[in-house]
Amino acid sequence: MQFRTMAAFAAAIALPITTIAQQPAHHDTMTALGELICDANPYTQLPPDQITGHQTGKMQLMTQSMTDLPEDAQARQSADITGRIAVEEGNYGGAQGLTFNGQPVHAKKSIRIPYRFAVTDKDGKYLYTRTETIIVTYAGGDGPGATGR
Predict the structure, then answer these.
(1) Helix %, strand %, coil % for the chain, to 5?
(2) In 3D, which of 144, 135, 133, 145 has the Cα closest to residue 107?
(3) What is the pTM of this model?
(4) In Å, what is the CA distance from 49 to each residue of 39, 52, 133?
(5) Measured between alpha carbons, how far is 14 from 17 in angstroms, rounded to an integer?
(6) Which of 24, 82, 102, 115 has the smallest number of CB atoms closer than 10 Å to its CB?
(7) Quick one: which of 46, 53, 43 has its CA closest to 121?
(8) Is 44 exposed, middle or buried (0-12, 13-18, 19+ CB in 10 A)?
(9) H or E stretch including 71?
(10) 132: closest CA among 56, 20, 79, 27?
């Protein structure tokens, strides 16, 4: 199903359209997106396993050490954690074949962000650290305005 306007799309899924003045600040929106991603994580903050009693802790993003950055970037990055998050990029150049909920998706680019979390026993004693990844895929139709970066 395609929609000509955002209003038509919002009406179809019963979402209110807000004006720019009603929208939260960019930082607040990005913080909320981060919280949504963390809350949707199916691997972290699980209740104790019924057999082993193991449970998982909070999601922790993996960051680069300041010593891994070139000197000119260290001062700039020290105040900005965003620049230290370990990210791997992949460009697809129009790759096809992905689907989401049964619908084809045109992937342009993905980023992979590693994170880790502690695994503890039933008494909360640390056992080991497990590493997983978040993969964010940017999808679109390559229509007008899709210059690709």
Answers:
(1) 25, 30, 45
(2) 135
(3) 0.64
(4) 19, 6, 22
(5) 9
(6) 102
(7) 53
(8) buried
(9) helix 71-78
(10) 56
* Amino acid at site 132: E
CA distances from 1 to 4, 12, 37 (A): 10, 10, 26
Q: Which two tokens stand for residue 136?
A: 């964010």
Find the farthest-apart pair of alpha carbons in the chain and give their distance in angstroms, rounded: 56
Asked if residues 41 and 117 have their Cβ atoms less than 8 Å apart, the reply is no
For every one of its 149 residues, what pLDDT tens digit does the chain have, with 9 covering 90 and above? Answer: 444 554 444 455 554 555 545 556 767 788 888 888 888 889 999 999 999 999 999 988 887 766 666 666 555 555 566 777 888 888 776 556 678 888 887 788 888 999 999 999 999 999 999 999 998 888 876 655 555 55
DSSP type of residue 115: E
* Residue found by looking up tokens 């997106």 in the block: 33
Instruction: Give CA–CA dist 27/32, Å, rounded.
Output: 9
